[in-house]
Each structure stands twice: as C-alpha cells, then as structure tokens.
Amino acid sequence: MRIGVVNNLRAGKSQDQVSRMLGFLRSHPDVLHVETENAGVMPDALADLARQEVDLLVVNGGDGTLQYVLTEILGSGVFGDRVPLVAPLRAGRTNMSAMDLAAHRDPLRGLEELIACTEDGRIAERVEPRRVLRVSYGHGASSIQRSAQYGMFFGAGIIKRAIELNHRLFDQGSQRRLVEGVPGATLVTAGLMGRLITGDQSGILTPDKIQILLDGQPLDHGEFHLVIASTLSRLFARMRPFWGQGPGGVRFTSFAAPSQKFGKAAIGILRGKPANWVTPEAGYTSRN
Fold first, then answer.
1. What is the pTM of this model?
2. What is the DSSP letter of 171?
3. Rounded to whole angstroms, how far apart are CA atoms 146 and 138?
4. Which of 51, 228, 245, 280 is the most buried (most CB within 10 A)?
5. Minimal CA–CA distance to 187: which of 215, 208, 167?
6. Which residue blocks in the chain are alpha helix, DSSP H?
C-alpha cells in the first residue's frame, strides 16, 4: 500500500511541529509527500499524488484542509475512479473530523501508527466508512453559481459566526496560542449562547432566514438561531447536539427562532440528551 501525505504548512501548527513532521518525512523516503501553503496549490499537489497511485492519503492539517482535499477528490475527480483511503491527522486549529475518528493527539504519532498498520497488514482494522456532505451554492437564475464543496460538517447561525468571530479576535497577537482553534471557538460559542439565553437577538445573534427540507419535507419554522448538518457524531468541545432518530447518515439539528426555554434546554441538547419537552413544536428539531 502506497502512502501519500498532504502536508499543510499553515494549518495552525507551530514551527516546531512543522520541522518535526518534515524531518520525519525526509527520513521515510517510501512515504510520498507534498507541501502546501495555500488552497491554490492543492489541486496540483493532489494530482501529483494521484499520478503516483497513492492508496492511503494522509491529511496533515485541520478540518479546512480536509474540506479542500475531499472537494478535489469527490468534486474535481483528481483521483478519477480510484479514490484512496483518507486519514486526517489532528494538525489544524479545528480537528473535529480527526478527533471523531479517534486520531492520535500528536500528528506525528498518528502518522507513525498508520505506517505501522500498513506494514503489518492491519490497515483494514482502522477503516471506518463515513458519508461526506455535498454543499452546493446558488439558487435561482440571479444567484452567483459556485462549485460544490465537500466535507464532514455544515453549520449556520451561532456556530458559524462563533468560528468566524474567533478567527477575527484571536488570529493575531500574544493570545493566539491559548485561545485559537477549539478553545477559542468554545469560548466564543458559549458567550454567544449566553447572550441568546438572556433574550438578546440583535446584531450577530439576529436569526437567519432559511428554508429547510428534510427528506423532502419542509420544517415549519422560517428563522433559525442554529442549523447543523454533519456526518460526525461529536463536534468540538465534545459536543454531541444530535438526538434524532432514523436510518439516514446525515445528523441534523436546528434551533428555531424563537425557541422555548432555550436556557433550560441548552445543556441537555449539547450532550445529545434533551428534556422530553424539547420538540419541534418548541422550536428544536433533530433528525437523521
């Protein structure tokens, strides 16, 4: 089995982590690798690995890097019909997908484990089939059409705004190491939810107007504080805001505006164990 690594040099890692990974890869010439510093070079980097017939593609980056990789593989067809196994490492600012797949906390250790499994013929034991979301933009003749994106998570409302606000607040300055990525997103999300509990629905907390159909059936509500669709079972900070039933592979949760007793409902919802009164009629929907 041929291993290839997409090594994102700007995925929130320290220079020491980058140096360690590059040194390791140089000492393992049998492991193919390409280095990327921006999304623009991703197509050519993956095409290079595809030409060398990589069987296991290791993504040394975060959720954003994985999204770019999956989009090139499934959207652009860079590997053709020969889609490789994909193994994300926990090397970015947010690593929900890698964490949900039980990747090692240390990216280098995670890569070492994958290499050992391939050498011992045990890689099949590590394979966990997952569905991938396809998100396409544009509706109607007047909208701007953009290519579809592929990934493991889609969010609108509070969670999307929390991640964007976290990047704006903490991407610069001495606080970055302490609060970037998952810690920062957790703090900002908690702060926004706290404001929502107090009844604040202004500014960044203004509900989004969204039309939602689940398996062809529309939701009754037209405005939402939060919409999540994912093939992951848990999100950052070990949140599991899914409690819906059904055979579908996409987990979906939404909080309508208004939602009844949001303060009392929040803790149970985040654990995936809401109170009995948390129902679509009260503004809370969760389905598979």
1. 0.82
2. S
3. 7
4. 228
5. 167
6. 15-26, 42-51, 63-70, 96-100, 107-119, 158-170, 176-179, 181-197, 262-270
